[in-house]
Amino acid sequence: MAGPMKIRATAAGGFTDIRVLMTHPMETGQRKDPDGKLVPLYFIQTVTVKLNGRTVVDGQISQGVSRNPVFSFRIKGGARGDKVEVAWEDNTGETSSIEAAVA
Amino acid sequence: MDKFRRALLGVVALGLLKPWAAFAAWNKEAFGASSAAEALKGIGASGAAPSKEIVIEAPEIAENGAVVPIEITSKLPGTSSIAVVVDKNPFPLVGKFDFLEGAVPFVKLNVKMGETSEVRVIAQAGGRSYVATKEIKVTIGGCGG
Q1: Does the beta carbon of B95 lie under 8 angstroms from any beta carbon of chain A?
Q2: Average pLDDT for residues B51-67, to the nearest whole number?
Q3: Given CB atoms, is A40 within the 8 Å cutoff of chain B?
Q4: Parallel, antiparallel, or unpaired: how do β-strands A54-61 and A44-51 relate?
Q5: What is the ipTM of this complex?
Q6: Using the 8-state DSSP alphabet, how is residue A1 labeled?
Q7: Domains observed in chain A
Q8: pLDDT tens-digit series, residues A13-22
């Protein structure tokens, strides 16, 4: 099942590095469970990164991303205290998001 | 008749509103493609020109195909998106990231690889597509779970 996210945003040298972890099984729809039944497709489809409420990265991903996805993104500028938000939506319509202040 | 008109107007209005939805529609055609060529076509990147300005940092040999770290930077001016395609995966397109004002065309992610394969990174800049390729050898496949 999908679970909590973790985020870290650090400013250095005029850039802000964002590292985010999502808890999600990212099922490919090709794996079989111990009873030999196919585990249905279950994966994150969209990932968005916002800085102070404005979208800066708009990503679409497939089941080809590893389980419990970890992404790094980089944005120009970003001052201490700026608000970074990362959100995802999966193929079942489930969503999750996390917010952090730039450190 | 009035009811029909109202329904029709509703459909039109929905269509107009769609581009402003919080999430852009997932590119079903490109992600559902079972060959790299089809995937490239799906993201409008057929005939991408090779470029050395796209830097791919990834292991030559991945011990575990379930988690292959790939770091991508595009030095092409005006890069608007980066896409990752693993040629030999059942569905080659792994992801496409659009970079808007304020973002650096950089992304690091972990991908699954079923077997040794060419990994293509496509960057779109100034309305044109560019590609860089790197072969990653996989000793244990990552699609069986």
Answers
A1: yes
A2: 95
A3: no
A4: antiparallel
A5: 0.95
A6: -
A7: 3-101 (2.60.40.10)
A8: 999 999 999 9
Tell me if chain A has a CB within 8 Å of the CB of B19.
no
Buried b / exposed e over B56-85, threshold 16 CB at 10 Å, is bebeeebeebbbbebebbbebeebbbbbbb
Contact (CB<8Å) A75/B145: no
Q: Residue B144's pLDDT band (boundaries 50, 70, 90)?
A: low
Does B109 lie at the interface with A, CB-CB under 8 angstroms? yes
Q: What is chain A's Cα-based Rg?
A: 15
Question: pLDDT tens for residues A69-99?
Answer: 999 999 998 899 999 999 999 999 999 999 9
Q: Which domains does chain B have, with CATH numbers?
A: 26-138 (2.60.40.2470)
* CA-wise closest residue to A66 among B56, B68, B60: B68
Tell me whether residues A74 and B31 touch, CB distance under 8 A.
Answer: no
- The answer to whether A60 contacts B27, with C-beta atoms less than 8 Å apart, is yes
pLDDT in the model for residue B145: 46
Yes or no, beta carbons of A70 and B104 under 8 Å apart: no
